[in-house]
Design goal:
This protein is α+β, with helices and mostly antiparallel strands. It is built from 10 helices and 10 strands. Residues 1-6 have low confidence and may be disordered.
Amino acid sequence: MSQPRNLTTAFSINSIPFDEDYHPAESTRLTTNFANLARGTTRRENLRNALGMIDNRFNALASWDNPRADRYSVKLDIISVEMSIAGGKAFPLIEILKTTVVDHETDTLIEGIVGNNFSSYVRDYDFSVVLPEHNCNEPTFSLPDDFGDLHGSLFKSFLRSDTYRCHFGKPPVICISASSSKTYHRTANRHPIMGVEYRQDEPSSTDRYFAKMGMQVRYFMPPGSVAPLAFYFIGDLLGDYSSLQLISTISTMDTFQRIYRPEIYNANAAAGALYQPNLKHQDYSLTRIVYDRDERSRLAVEQGKFAEEHFIKPYRAVLAQWSANAAV
C-alpha cells in the first residue's frame, strides 16, 4: 500500500533556552510545565527557583567527586517541532526538553537527554476531545480502538526523519507522573541512579498511548524521591544512557512533579511496598513556586479544540490514510 501521492510531510525544529528570561512562544501550549512557570507577576522568581531546584537535585544525585554539591548545573533547551503537510502551513506538533550537563570543574558540556517533558496538541485533542466524546454516554470507561493511532504515527515518523537524526544521537526518554488510577508494587530491583523499581499489574491508558508511539515504560523511585516516576523510552533505558544523562532527566522532571503534583511528589512520607498515587492526599509540602492547576485543566480542552480546528479537520482524510500506511 503506497502513501497518497499528494501527501508530503516535513518536520522543522526550533530551539530556545529555558532560563530566567524565557517567554513562551505563541505556538506553545500554555499548559506545558515550563510555559506555566513563565507567566504572571512571579514569572522570573518561578523560573529562578525551579532552575535552582533542578541544579540542587542534580548535585545531590551526582555526589561522587562533588564534595560541595555544586559541581554541576543543568542547561535546558525547549525543542519545538513543527510539521507541514502537502506544503501547507506548519502546525506545532510537539515540544520536548533537551538537557545538557555543565561540569564547572572541567569547564565542559556533557550531552544530556532529549524528551523529558512532552507537550502535544494532538494528545490534548485525543484526551480532552476524543476520549470524553467516546465515553459521554457509556456506562463504563473505555478507549476507542484507534485511540492514539494517528499521534503514534506522527511521533514515530518524526523519530525516523532526517530532522531528528541530524539533531539528536539517541532516542528520547519522556518522564511523567505515575497514574493515580493504578497500584504500583515495589520490586527487589534497585539501580544506583534510578533507585528502586516499581511495577503495576495492568497498563494505564497513558501507557497504551505511549506504546503506540513505540515507547515502553518502567517505573523507578530515585534516591531522595518519595514516589515512582514513569519513564517512557525506546531501547534499553538503563544501558543506553550514562549516569549523568539519567540524572539530568530525573532532576528536571522530579522538580516539575514536585511543583505540579506536590500531593504525590512532595509528600512528607515515601511510597511503600504497595503504592497508589492520590491527588487528594493532604500530608505534603508546597514549593515556593506559583502554579494554577485549575487553569491548566481548562486550557487542555481549549488546546485540544485548537488541534481539531487547525490540524485534524483540515487534513482528516489524508491523515487517516497516511496513518494507516505508516502502520503498515
